[in-house]
Amino acid sequence: MLHASESESHAQRHVAGEEGEPGEQTPEPELEAEGAAGSPVAPEGGDARPARRKLPVVAGTPAAAPATTWSRAWGKRALVVVLALTAGALFLGSYFQPWWRFQLYAPQYPNGLELVISLDGVSGDVREVNMLNHYIGMESLEKAAPFEREMAIYAVAGLAVLVLALTLALGKKVGKLVVIPGLLFPLVFIADSFYWLHKFGHSMDPKAAIHIAPFTPHMFGNGEIGQFGTFAYPLTGFWMSVAGALLLVVAVVFRARVCKACGRAGTCGAVCKAGFVGPKAGLPSGA
Question: Which helix (H) or strand (E) holds 265?
């Protein structure tokens, strides 16, 4: 009976709601405030519904500007030029220094004999050595490398200018060629000296008073010629040329880095059209 009475009462309230005044609506139950734990509290007799939240609007962060992909690298450019100038100065200065020393030892020469080779000639005990050469049918030392001795100063000066010119003018693709003339300088000297030593030791006069087997004097360390012991080693001029060549190697390494970061790296050919240190050096084409 109790259940029946409750059903009738509920039906009467429903009918009364439908017959109410026009425009009048039954208010929706409002959600209570969230609990301490953050979960919504449902109204009595209703289901729990999650409360809607408005998220704060965060202003968008502007995109960072694209990083510059090229650089003029004035510091490295200046370093490359200084290295090339220093190398050229070493090459030029080596002309005025001795390059090689030959020492000869024998019982009749307790103090030994000495020959010093420079780019423009031979010095030391030249007269005594020429007398010994005469007895075994060898040419006098003055006849060795006449063309090389005459042209040496022009060749060295030209090398110094060439190194600087190539450093400033060559493009990215062939920039490494700068180092070739510098590396060749000491190597050509050794090769040319060996040629003349071999030629003199293998073209002796068969009518000479003393006959010895053909020979080529050692250019490094100990050797033997007849009854003479020899010792040979490089001097200041040679080491100056080696130092100049090494400086060029360092210059080429830095130059390659500069060219890689240059604004014209993608279009640079055999010649640096903007100039390695010109007013437009490092700028992109059309800048």
Answer: none
pLDDT of 159 strictly over 70: yes
Asked whether 166 and 181 are in contact (CB, 8 A), the reply is: yes
User: Rounded distance, CA 286 to CA 164, Å?
Assistant: 27
Q: How far is CA 35 from CA 42, 46, 48, in A?
A: 10, 16, 12
Q: 30 exposed, middle or buried (CB, 10 Å; 0-12, 13-18, 19+)?
A: exposed
Q: Which amino acid does the sequence have at 166?
A: L
SS3 state at 122: strand
Contact call for residues 93 and 126 (beta carbons, < 8 A)? no
Residues 266-284: b if buried by 16+ CB within 10 A, e if exposed: eebeeebebebeeeebbee
pLDDT at 229: 95
Read off the tokens for 88. 């050229």
Q: Which two tokens stand for residue 209?
A: 């008073």
114: helix, strand or coil: strand
Per-residue pLDDT band for 216 (boundaries 50, 70, 90) equals very high
Kind plus residue range of the DSSP H or E element containing 285: none
Integer Cα distance of 105 and 82 in angstroms: 45
Q: Report the pLDDT averaged over residues 17-21.
A: 44
Report DSSP state, residue 155: H
User: Residues of 112-141 as b/e, b for ≥16 C-beta within 10 angstroms?
Assistant: ebbbbbbbeebebbbeebbebbeebbbbeb
Domains and CATH numbers, the chain: 74-261 (1.20.140)
pTM: 0.71
Of 247, 243, 249, 240, the residue nearest 179 (C-alpha): 249
Structural element, H or E, at residue 112: strand 109-118
Separation of alpha carbons 13 and 90, rounded Å: 114
